[in-house]
Write a structure and sequence with these properties.
This protein folds into two domains: 1-43, no CATH class; 55-262, MetI-like fold. Helices cover 68% and strands 0% of the residues. The longest helix is centred in the C-terminal third of the chain and has 33 residues, at 230-262. Helix 9 (182-197) packs antiparallel against helix 11. By secondary structure, the protein is mostly helical.
Length: 266
């Protein structure tokens, strides 16, 4: 059993090893028949060039800002919507929840053209809102699914006791509900972050100037009309993947725990 799991682990981690290996070689050494390369000299300069010439700090700042804002909005809206559709009594709550969850069935890139037409007409292209709106909209159904499933497992008696003590709806959500949903919130945050971090298609469609471009654009800084610096591009991809890998390794247990607890209903 351990041998099988070890083989699966190696297969899963091999793309990262391959990426790191190619990022430390020269561009001429990349054209090989082998899966991996043993560089004659480790090219640390690829990372220096990727960091300096690839506008890495600017694109990193944009990625952190856009992903951070989308993450906060998704968490807040998911919790409030989950409370409204699982705790509050009103006629259309089931229909509204079902309608929102249907968003999980729509591929994010299927809306590229209609979104671009709308953004162009209202003047949102090449702004932070061009990415923030779709990132939040397409992460919200998954966030609602996880938070509502977890919230249904929280005893209603806790909220009833808080109401008797004079708490309002927002204080109940902030003081009673939110602290009990740490695992679910962590799961929503991590999955939202990972889903949006490397998104490139929408960013390349809606953005033109460097003002709001995100990290995946660093790769294009080393793409020429007739040739490309492939080794530096691999270094850029390694630097881009590093934050997501670190966060996933540190908070991996919260993903499993949050998904498992969010699936419990009763």
């Amino acid at each position: 059993m351990m041998i099988c799991l070890s083989i699966v682990a190696v297969i899963q981690i091999f793309p990262l090893i391959w990426l790191l290996d190619f990022s430390l070689a020269s561009s001429n050494e990349l054209f090989t028949t082998g899966l991996l390369i043993i560089p004659k000299k480790i090219q640390w300069g690829n990372y220096v060039k990727a960091f300096v010439d690839g506008n890495f700090l600017l694109y990193l700042k944009n990625s952190l800002l856009i992903n951070g804002l989308s993450l906060v909005l998704v968490i807040c809206i998911s919790i409030i919507t989950a409370f409204a559709t699982t705790r509050m009594i009103w006629k259309l709550k089931t229909a509204v929840k079902t309608f929102l969850l249907l968003g999980m069935m729509i591929p994010i890139h299927a809306t590229l053209l209609p979104n671009y037409i709308i953004y162009d007409r209202v003047g949102l292209t090449d702004t932070i809102w061009a990415l923030l709106i779709p990132y939040v909209a397409f992460s919200l159904p998954q966030g609602l699914f996880l938070t509502s499933g977890f919230m249904e497992a929280i005893p209603k008696e806790l909220e009833e006791a808080a109401l008797i003590d004079g708490c309002g709806v927002y204080r109940i959500i902030l003081i009673i509900i939110a602290p009990l949903m740490k695992s679910s919130v962590a799961t929503v945050a991590i999955m939202t972050y990972l889903n949006n971090w490397n998104e490139f298609m929408m960013a390349s469609t809606y953005l033109r100037s460097k003002t709001w471009k995100t990290l995946p654009f660093s790769v294009l800084e080393f793409t020429g009309q007739y040739s490309s610096d492939y080794a530096v591009q691999f270094a850029v991809m390694a630097l881009t993947a590093l934050p997501a890998i670190i966060i996933y390794i540190i908070l991996n247990k919260h993903i499993t725990k949050g998904v498992a607890m969010g699936a419990v209903k009763g």
